[in-house]
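Running this now, will post back.
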Amino acid sequence: MHAWPASEVPALTGQGRDLRIHDTATGGLVTLAPGPVARIYVCGITPYDATHMGHAATYNAFDLVQRVWLDTKRQVHYVQNVTDVDDPLLERAVRDGIDWVGLAEKETALFREDMTALRMLPPKQYIGAVEAIPGIVPLVERLRDAGAAYELEGDVYFSVEADPNFGKVSHLDASAMRLLSAERGGDPDRPGKKNPLDPMLWMAAREGEPSWDGGSLGRGRPGWHIECVAIALEYLGMGFDVQGGGSDLVFPHHEMGASHAQALTGEFPMAKAYVHAGMVALDGEKMSKSKGNLVFVSALRRDGVDPAAIRLALLAHHYRDNWEWTDQVLADAVARLGRWRAAVSRPDGPSADALVEELREALANDLDAPAALAAVDRWAALQTEQGGTDEGAPGVASRAVDALLGVAL
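Update: finished.
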């Protein structure tokens, strides 16, 4: 599966700062100091309805992570999956009377278009669950043969008790885990499971549903969590720098994935930091496909909204905050984009060297995009009110906003 084209990231003079970012597993800020190549895995979409503003906000957060790293002169190894076979996708295809493969391909293509328009940096590997199956099957077999998994009526479940570090990502108690498991794709009430929280690794073939050869597992398809684990381990290995996604993935997805990987390798932790973006709401409720309260990037683009304004609307909120999409949020972003473009369109202006350092400091401080936007606002206001004589200043400001915020002026 291919990703989308990369936009050019301008190289800035000077040196970026190491990223301090909130780690869900420890509950506080950690300073990440990767080697020459920083490694990040971000969970991708289930392609049955893409791309709403909740998606866009999540991928914007991890695009900023990459930009901070690139500014430190590191390379970035970014991997993202596509869950191109899963119950919600199959259910949507049945509801609409269409082929599930065609639905996944159509929505994945639309996602690529949206990511390109928003100037999100693409992953080096963009891997679908289906294409990952040959690598998933041996991992499930290894877990089963090691006693970390068991069969139940043809399905294979992971035993959470096989990982002594289970629970160290979310730090939730058993009752909260059970509730979230039921809400987010698990089956805690299924009779016969050793532990209600045990997640499925391999689902035996069901009548009328797609299935693949699973070797000694029999025909079936993979569970949700093992998909990401197989992809992350193959391309990044254990102990990569950031595992990212929306806050709704803390449990069960990231908790279970970490346990799968740790049981497979005997190493801890799977990732050095677990980083999660907040949720975006509309009309008082979290945007979700089940509620149908979605604002789509593609719909805004069709209406003529500049993708740079969409990106500024996302950047106006701290990535960890939960916030609500409104017409005013977009109107404010459109106005801000106009002010910034007017400021950099002049032949000269006040020096922007300090602005570059303000942007670096804000983003290195837990991706504080609102503080970064405020710094650009101040420079643009000074340009408008007083001007300046530095002929290079507008170009410096424009390149910094492009390189660090992903907004083309």
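The two ends are 31 Å apart (CA to CA). More later if anyone needs it.
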